[in-house]
Design brief:
Order of helices and strands: HHHEHHEEHHHHH
Strand order of the largest sheet: 1-3-2
Structural class: mainly alpha
InterPro entries: Tscrpt_reg_PadR_C (IPR018309), Tscrpt_reg_PadR_N (IPR005149), WH-like_DNA-bd_sf (IPR036388), WH_DNA-bd_sf (IPR036390)
Number of strands: 3
Shape: flat
Oligomer: single chain
Radius of gyration: 25 Å
Number of domains: 3
Pfam family, one: PadR
Protein name: Transcriptional regulator PadR-like family protein
Number of helices: 10
Largest sheet: 3 strands, antiparallel
Helix content: 55-70%
């Protein structure tokens, strides 16, 4: 059996990229100074904290940013009423999908996980003239999880910090003014269609009124819809103004 002598200098040289990549990632994160690092006692000491922070934040971006918010969205809907998976997907698409996207398959996978975690329970309702259906109910554990999530600090950003539209626009002097105006007209058409379709939001609020526990539920639903109306209107007016300024440039 061959043996090798550990060469610390060579290892540090080979792993320097870990520290470089970690430094770049950390510089772009909003660290609050209260984060903790678990030192597993392996690897080059200067690179280890960066490796662990990368894993920690990638986990949070993937699990908490996507899965956990879907989980709480489903818990919130079940807190109004027991529903089947089909009814949940329908309610999700009629309300939450305007600001949080999820495929039906994702919803069913998350329901299975939530039941394993004890956040919800399910029962089979036997039907004679139709296939049996599974009905989901939120549990006390699920209600506690929902309340705990709602009590966490509200994120201070309403919109994503990345926009391919704005990134492209920033460098659009490389294209002709006519090409850029045409691209902006497509954005105008898109938001005009969104605004014309916002009537479906009011219809959804009326449709699900029986699920509301109090009038305050409907008020908060409408406040959420107000953001969609205001945001779509703002984007439409911004794109129209861009077109006006480009046309006035004479280029």
């Amino acid at each position: 059996m061959r043996t090798f002598e550990f060469n610390g200098e060579r290892y540090a040289q080979a792993s320097r990229h870990q520290k470089e990549w970690g430094s770049r990632l950390i510089s772009g994160l909003r660290l609050r100074g209260c984060e903790s690092i678990l030192d597993l006692g392996c690897g080059e000491v200067n690179a280890l904290p960066y490796n662990l922070l990368i894993l920690f934040y990638l986990y949070n971006i993937k699990e908490r940013g996507i899965v956990m918010s879907l989980k709480h969205g489903l818990l919130g809907l079940l807190n109004y009423s027991d529903m089947t998976g089909y009814e949940l997907a329908k309610a999700f698409n009629a309300s939450l999908s305007f600001f949080w996207q999820a495929q039906t398959s994702q919803i069913y996978r998350e329901l299975n996980k939530m039941e394993e975690q004890g956040c919800l329970s399910s029962r089979i309702e036997v039907q004679t003239d139709k296939p049996n259906k599974r009905i989901y109910s939120i549990t006390e554990t699920g209600k506690a999880e929902l309340r705990s999530w709602l009590k966490t600090p509200m994120p201070d950003e309403l919109l994503p910090t990345r926009s391919e539209v704005l990134l492209r626009l920033f460098f659009s002097s490389e294209r002709t003014t006519a090409e850029n105006i045409e691209a902006l007209k497509q954005i105008v058409a898109s938001y005009e269609a969104q605004i014309s379709g916002l009537g479906a939001v009011e219809a959804s609020i009326r449709e699900y009124k029986p699920l509301a526990h109090t009038d305050m539920d409907m008020l908060y639903w409408d406040l959420t819809a107000d953001f969609g109306r205001a945001y779509s209107k703002m984007c439409l007016e911004w794109a129209q103004k861009c077109i006006e300024r480009l046309e006035a440039s004479g280029q």
